[in-house]
Amino acid sequence: MKKLILALPIFLVAFSTSLPHSPTVQAVSQKSWEDVAVKETKKRYPMSQVLFSQKIWDKKKTDITVKQYRFTLREGMDDFSVYTTITFDSDSGEIKKVQVVPEA
């Protein structure tokens, strides 16, 4: 009985790590577009530090996808927010347009 109790956690760990996790794949692609948005925001505000990021919305059409993120930035002692919108080709991933707009 003791062998079964000791073997059970090892079996559970081994079994759980061998299963494919499809949400991880989606999170990786989502994170890459967020990274692109951060890079584009840093081009406009090179001395800023990103404190918080949030995906606001995305819209996918047949040939174009649009994603919008909100970033809270710190530059010196000032904190402020900007909206970064990325428009890209849905098939190739080629960026068509990037807009960085400060929050009013």
TrEMBL record:
Gene3D superfamilies: Protein of unknown function DUF3889. InterPro entries: DUF3889. It holds the Pfam family DUF3889. Residues 1-27 form the signal peptide. Keywords: Signal. It comes from the Bacteria. This is DUF3889 domain-containing protein. It comes from Bacillus weihaiensis. The lineage of its organism: Bacteria, Bacillati, Bacillota, Bacilli, Bacillales.
